[in-house]
Recover the amino acids of this structure.
């Protein structure tokens, strides 16, 4: 996976993700941004469905790691190992998520994956846009990457 178009192609080929209409909308440095329309992710209260927000946050971390691996010239399978999501406020607008590695751990992650064929990395993700400009949901997750060799 080398760019946003490739990432979006993956999203389009995962039926639940395609139904949520999630799109990779930006990748700058060490931050991946995803977006999705509220209409495809609404709950019975007409605000964003918690399951959609959790899925989107998980996909943001997964996508970020895949893009960073491609930058490093590595091909690996990436899995979410565990995640903790906090729902902080209702979201009544488009879902916009950003994912980043909080402690610039990319060099160690990449070195470990090259040396051992397996590495773990913690990613933080947020969905912004709650009333007053706050965060609607936040996730801390740990991912595992494994090479096939």
């Amino acid at each position: 996976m080398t760019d946003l178009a490739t990432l979006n192609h993956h999203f389009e080929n995962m039926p639940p993700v395609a139904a949520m209409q999630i799109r990779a909308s930006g990748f700058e440095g060490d931050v991946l941004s995803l977006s999705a329309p509220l209409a495809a992710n609404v709950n019975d209260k007409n605000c964003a469905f918690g399951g959609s927000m959790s899925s989107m946050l998980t996909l943001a971390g997964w996508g970020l790691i895949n893009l960073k691996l491609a930058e490093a010239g590595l091909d690996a399978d990436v899995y979410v190992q565990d995640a903790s999501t906090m729902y902080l406020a209702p979201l009544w607008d488009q879902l916009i998520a950003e994912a980043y590695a909080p402690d610039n751990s990319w060099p160690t992650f990449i070195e470990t994956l090259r040396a051992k064929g397996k590495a773990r990395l913690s990613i933080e993700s947020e969905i912004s846009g709650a009333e007053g400009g706050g965060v609607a949901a936040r996730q801390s997750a740990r991912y595992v990457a494994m090479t096939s060799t």
Observations:
- The helical segments are 4-12, 15-20, 50-71, 106-116.
